[in-house]
Amino acid sequence: MTQTTECALRAKEAARVLAAASAGCKNRALTKAAEAIETDADAILAANDTDMRAAESAGTDKAMLDRLYLDAARIKALADGMREVAAMPDPIGQVIEEWDRPNGLHIRKVRVPIGVIGMIYEARPGVTADSAALTVKSGNAVLLRGSAGAYASNAAIVRSIRGALVREGLPASCVELTPDRSHDSVEEMMRLTGVIDLLIPRGGAGLIDRVVSGSRVPVIQTGVGNCHVYVDDSARPDMVHRLVLNSKLQRPSVCNAAETLLISRGYPHTAELLKTLHEAGVALHGDAAVCALDGQALPACERDYAEEYLSADLCVAMVDGLQGAIDHIARYGTGHTELIITEDGERAAAFARSVDAACVNHNASTRFTDGGQFGFGAEIGIATQKIHARGPLGLRELTIYKYLVSGNGQVRE
Amino acid sequence: MTQTTECALRAKEAARVLAAASAGCKNRALTKAAEAIETDADAILAANDTDMRAAESAGTDKAMLDRLYLDAARIKALADGMREVAAMPDPIGQVIEEWDRPNGLHIRKVRVPIGVIGMIYEARPGVTADSAALTVKSGNAVLLRGSAGAYASNAAIVRSIRGALVREGLPASCVELTPDRSHDSVEEMMRLTGVIDLLIPRGGAGLIDRVVSGSRVPVIQTGVGNCHVYVDDSARPDMVHRLVLNSKLQRPSVCNAAETLLISRGYPHTAELLKTLHEAGVALHGDAAVCALDGQALPACERDYAEEYLSADLCVAMVDGLQGAIDHIARYGTGHTELIITEDGERAAAFARSVDAACVNHNASTRFTDGGQFGFGAEIGIATQKIHARGPLGLRELTIYKYLVSGNGQVRE
After folding, report:
1. In whole angstroms, what is the distance from residue A317 CA to residue A260 CA?
2. By the 8 A CB rule, do B174 and B196 touch?
3. Contacts of B403 (CB under 8 A, 6+ apart)
4. pTM of the model
5. What is residue B203's predicted lDDT score, i.e. its pLDDT?
6. Do β-strands B141-145 and B227-231 pair in parallel, antiparallel, or remain unpaired?
7. Contact A410 B368 (CB under 8 A)
8. What average pLDDT does the structure give for chain A?
9. By CB atoms within 10 Å of each CB, which of A171, B235, B275, B281 scores lowest?
């Protein structure tokens, strides 16, 4: 049996114990895990140093190095994140609904953990602590498969967390990190039906595509966000400038940043908007109508409409009003976040009805699609598929339910 | 482009229209579809006759022929089923939850259709009408791929339904039946990511395994039920006999029938129970302890513990009380329905907490795991996986949600 399968089977055993753990026990374990991460900071930083040196000598680029890097402040942030999750209400055991049937049966729909969650992720060691906190709190065991280049950091963080779990009487195997750093472990996790109940890939489009198309285990697709901002005829120019700049530039490298700006032909302040964007350092890729209006814009090709730039680039197209925007988004959207800026409530409602995405915003930045901003406390990713859960995945989205049917001897006629 | 892909793309277009259709429009269309199925009964029966003749000359077995067969009464039942779905409340547009954020954002979580649902199913033409009714009512377009041997029947039913949809102003393509009767169409549906949003396989274990392990499109696993009945020390013998017989024999061929009986060593009426089962015509496959007690029982092997007999066979094992039952079910259960018979409320609660299944019953037949019995009106299958939905899949389980985020120009700092 391989190391990854062994880890998964241990996690499955641990999940049975964790599913029955009280909120108090889970919260104490997470609070102790936060303390342990701080107490063990030197060991974690030494492990991170090993990963950083290896990455530097492998010529890893600066952005990637920054994602890998840990210091005292980042470790404190990890620990604080775990404490925040500990302080949140426990979703497990909640009676979602209950009803009686005419034959006297009483049916309760009760929230329960999913079981074993497999996390396949890239770079940031912070994801290790976040994932452990969210899964343990929601009663799920987790099998972590971080990137090979962050293995020492991840292993050190997991060691601290497992120590705290054990001190609180929970199995260490609630949090497993596979020691197999080869690609085999990813392939293996995708085949462990009956052991892993759900896979969450978190990282670049390549990783997510590979897991979505290859996995036999159910997957929640996260991340890819070709988010659009549609500027309607009646939009207020000041609000348009503020929302477009925030949606594009507040943090361009993340999935909820805007990638395409759709402007209604009836909006009277387009030239001014394009000027503001240039001044803010946004590189515009315009359709023919935009390029005719703006000599600085680069001509957009079909690929630009589909592109998730994750940079200060922005595709800009003129559309035939609301319906034009809706049709464009139906064609190119990835179901993440779509924004309409308008003073017309009816058009906002029509946009909300017709656009199919996890989040449809009206006069609010696309950057709000985030577990923290939604009030979920934390998130394990942002889902863009159409089943189970959409948008920010918090504690509740890591649960499912079972039906408890109680009677006094009823049989079916 | 193949016929199946063309059907799927038409369904995707239709889904956009159907998602915005009012409850009244959908209900009228389904009511008219029910009428059309009755009006067109002769044509449907003639088509069914074609399928029946082909099946007979291919030497199809009697049970299968019965599943394929339609007559006037069965057609009326199909139409009545559609009327029942039409009469149910529309889940679409329901505000599941709404809240305000400190920055003034208002977030609404609104129930929406999933999009395009692919149904891959075997034999019964009744599934065609049920699936169309449930998907249309829940605002989803459906691509049907029934078994090749039921194609004429399915096509005739779909023709009637589509005519009614069009008369009510809905696109015919809300309900598509692929004309490709080869296995290629199944393989193709499993690869249509971005077009089909969810696949529901319904049929034998072979079909379900194939779809679950091969599909790139998200799948809801339905059907396989290795359901256990656990008889606790304190169970009342009369209730035990009634519940075990009903769970096993009321309809042995379906997934919510019991397949394994676990008896606590502390239950004092085992011999009497085994005798009752023999008298009722149940073929017992016992473990060593059962065979020692009962000369008629066949010795059970490992395979019997995992077997979904779907017949009057029953595996019987003695267990070390509640924990023995829980451990046995954790090992062999398929997450469908598990029943404890006990007069001890604390043990029933412990069983409910520890057993991981879609439905955990206390003193009520396993046969109640059914959309109609739950009060859902109808069902498209019974889910046994751990994400999205578990147990009977009714209208609400064919939906998802989107977040509508409204503000007055909020940006993220």
Report:
1. 8
2. no
3. A358, A359, A360, A369, A374, A390, A391, B107, B108, B109, B110
4. 0.94
5. 85
6. unpaired
7. yes
8. 96
9. B281
Phi and psi angles of residue B229, each rounded to the nearest 5 degrees, phi first:
-115, 120
In the stretch 96-115 of chain B, residues with CB closer than 8 A to chain A read 99, 101, 105, 107, 112, 114-115
What CATH number should be reported for the domain whose range is A227-373? Answer: 3.40.309.10
In 3D space, the residue among B85, B96, B102, B114 whose CA is nearest the CA of residue B26 turns out to be B85
Distance between B257 CA and the closest CA of chain A, angstroms: 11
- What is residue B148's DSSP assignment? G
B358 and A402 within 8 Å at the Cβ level: the answer is yes
Partners of residue B390 in chain A, C-beta under 8 Å: 400-403
List CB contacts (< 8 A) between B406 and chain A: 348, 361-364
A375/B99 touch (CB, cutoff 8 Å), yes or no: yes
CATH superfamily membership of B3-220+393-406: Aldehyde Dehydrogenase; Chain A, domain 1 (3.40.605.10)
Residue A221 burial (C-beta neighbours within 10 Å; 0-12, 13-18, 19+): buried
Residues of A in contact with B107 (CB under 8 A): 374
Interface with B, mutate which of A192, A249, A368, A390 (most B CBs under 10 A): A368
CA B90 to mean position of chain CA atoms? 20
Domain ranges of chain A: 3-220+393-406, 227-373
Residues 272-291 of A with CB under 8 A from B: none
Q: Which amino acid would we find at residue A52?
A: M
**Cβ under 8 Å to A: B residues 116-175:** none
Distance between CA atoms of residues B332 and B310, nearest Å: 16
Kindly state the DSSP code that residue A90 receives in the 8-state scheme: P
Give the pLDDT of residue B54.
97
Check residue B44 and give its pLDDT: 98
B206: Cα separation from own chain's centroid: 16
Token pair 């606790």 is at which residue?
B232
Judged against a pLDDT cut of 80, whether residue A42 lies above it is answered with: yes
B 213-252 residues inside an 8 A Cβ radius of A? 213, 216, 218-220, 236, 238-239, 242-243, 245-246, 250
Looking at the partner chain, which of A107, A368, A375 has a beta carbon nearest the beta carbon of B412? A368
Q: What DSSP line would sit under A358-402, residue for residue? A: SEEEEEE-GGG-SHHHHT-S--S-EE-SSSS--EE--SGGGEEEE
Average pLDDT of chain B to the nearest whole number: 96
Two structure tokens written together for A194: 């009956």
ipTM score here?
0.94
The predicted-structure confidence for A264-309, as pLDDT tens digits, reads as follows 999 999 999 999 999 999 999 999 999 999 999 999 999 999 999 9
